[in-house]
Amino acid sequence: MGQPVPIAEPSTARALRDRLTIPVLAFGGILMAVMQTVVVPLLPDLPRLTHSSAGAVSWTVTATLLAGAVLTPVLGRAGDMYGKRRVLTAALGLMTVGSVMCALSSDIAVLITARALQGAAASVVPLSISILRDELPPERRGSAVALMSSTVGIGAALGLPLAALVVQYADWHTMFWLTSALGALGVTAVWWAVRESPAREPGRFDVVGALGLAAGLVSLLLGVSQGGEWGWGSARVVGLFAGSVVIMALWWWQQLRAERPLVDLRLVSRPRVGLSHVAALLTGFAFYANSLVTAQLVQAPKATGYGLGLSIVQTGLCLLPGGVTMLLFSPVSARISAARGPRITLALGAAVIACGYVVRIADSRDLWMIILGATVVSIGTTLAYSALPTLILRAVPAGQTASANGVNVLMRTIGQATSSAAVAAVLVHHTSPVGGLPVPTLHGYLMAFAMAGAIALAAAATALTIPGDSADGGTRRARGRTRGSRDEALEGA
User: Fold this and answer.
1) Triad 282, 287, 293: Cα angle to 5°
2) Quick check: 68 and 119 in contact, CB under 8 A?
3) pLDDT of 35-46, one tens digit each?
4) Measured in whole angstroms, how far is the alpha carbon of residue 396 from the centre of its chain?
5) Which residues pair with 439 in a beta bridge?
6) CA distance 128 to 29
7) Closest CA to 250 of 216, 204, 205, 214
8) Which of 80, 63, 166 lies closest to 121 in space, CA to CA?
9) Taking Cα atoms as reference points, which of 27, 57, 123 lies closest to residue 401?
10) Largest CB tally within 10 Å, which of 141, 184, 406, 435?
11) Residues in the chain, pLDDT under 70
């Protein structure tokens, strides 16, 4: 008779799950960023593949942006109330369902709906950061939060070349089947490895506040994202902006009077929180111009005199070093924050982004200089994005971390949408004919770099105005006391 097979003790299995918590959450963040970028290589061919117009195809990107902006603060609040792991699993599940819908259909209406569902994944990072705060000891929290913040850039850098390779050598539906399988793996891994956070903010969900925020954000971001195509002075765009102002004013009034508001505006009005959100908006603007302009610049025809005529796959490989450096520099960000405080890390990161754009302005013709400048911007983005959630975590109560980080991610999204519109406006006004088609000039690209660099400097200045973190001072004082005690002990010996 064979020996009985030993059964692992529950504590052993739980220890394994705890060790895998950070990698599993990071995988979810990378997967979210990959999902957002995989459609980019398809955009030129989607009108032909779906028998639709280029304007309709652009909604496969716009729908994800709008849904993510609306759902991030809403799902963050839901996570604080009903459980962060539960809501995180639901967000990844919606993302996976959207990917399956894209894999099964070529109808543009279905694709737009599916991409809107995938926008729910924008809440993955703030929810994961809140889980890390609840589950990890302070000495591990900083590096884990920094890594989680960096997954956005890492996933974007990995997603573009991966999607380009699949699109080039296989049917485009294959790409969505692959992401569907990865999404299912992510949902399963989170449910198995991640504990449910005990910190809760009980109460009734603010449905009126959620609907008001959704209406205001959709009006704002729809006007920003479509202003270039519809015309900034058109009745539709002006009406959207005016409607957004009115709706958000009413929403603000309602939130101040709600017993359990969706967003605690009194908390947001505190300088440490409010200025962190402003810095997030400015940093999102500065960061997004890098990948947006780099992809267009290196693919420009050689006939322009500056373009390199690279393919989509080659373009993705040019952005890959930036993603690798984000992974490498995330622990550096955590160390700087531990030593000097996250606001200094944020200011330093924004300043490094500005330096990256100086490199871009100095030389945007040689491939190695383009890659170097883009990589420097990525390093600065890592420092800044890793510091932002740490600032929020130290400034808000434990029961509101997911919703507060959701608002911070929302501000980054608004910054990115504004950056996209501003860069497009600059490039449209600086074109020259090449082969009978208007193509942006090198001067237009340099102006876009200068604009993004100036915004990065504004983000650095904003970071320095954030009130000092008392926790940092306490940490430094504690270290000083420890060193003093050690010195006294040595003298006594």
Assistant:
1) 125
2) yes
3) 888 887 787 788
4) 20
5) 432
6) 8
7) 216
8) 63
9) 123
10) 406
11) 1-10, 13-14, 469-493
According to the model, what pLDDT value does residue 474 have? 41
Cα separation, 175 vs 164, in Å, equals 9
Residue 385's Cα: distance from chain center in Å? 8
The residue assigned the tokens 């809107």 is: 116
Tokens 């009745």: give the residue: 235
Q: Which residue has the tokens 């915004």?
A: 455
Sorted by sequence, the CB contacts under 8 Å of residue 226 that are 6+ apart come out as 62, 236, 237
Which residue blocks in 38-137 are alpha helix, DSSP H?
Answer: 46-50, 54-82, 84-104, 108-118, 124-135
Residue 35 amino acid letter: M
CA–CA gap between residue 275 and residue 350 (Å, rounded): 14
The answer to whether 147 and 332 are in contact (CB under 8 A) is: no
Q: What is the pLDDT of residues 227-256, one digit of tens each?
A: 877 888 899 999 999 999 999 999 999 999
Look at residue 137 and give its three-state secondary structure.
Answer: coil
**pTM score:** 0.82
Helix (H, G, I), strand (E, B) or coil at 470: helix
Which residues of 373-461 form beta strands (DSSP E)?
431-434, 437-440
Q: Map tokens 């290589």 to a residue.
A: 41
Closest CA to 283 of 458, 134, 444: 458
- Biggest CA–CA distance in the chain, Å, is 85
Give the C-alpha separation, 60 to 31, whole Å: 18
The pLDDT of residue 294? 85
Query: How many angstroms separate the CA atoms of 211 and 204, rounded?
Result: 15
Q: Minimal CA–CA distance to 149: which of 343, 348, 383, 347?
A: 383
CA distances from 54 to 45, 262, 296, 473 (A): 9, 37, 18, 54
> What DSSP assignment string belongs to 19-58?
HHHHHHHHHHHHHHHHHHHTTGGGTTTHHHHHT--HHHHH
In whole angstroms, how large is the CA radius of gyration of the chain? 23
Q: H-type helices in 232-366, by residue range?
A: 235-257, 265-268, 271-299, 312-340, 342-362
SS3 214: helix
* Distances from the Cα of 75 to the Cα of 58, 313, 493, angstroms: 25, 35, 58
Reference 462, options 427, 417, 401, 415; nearest CA is 415
Task: Report how far Cα 6 is from the mean position of its chain's Cα atoms.
Answer: 45
C-alpha–C-alpha distance, residues 437 and 51, integer Å:
23
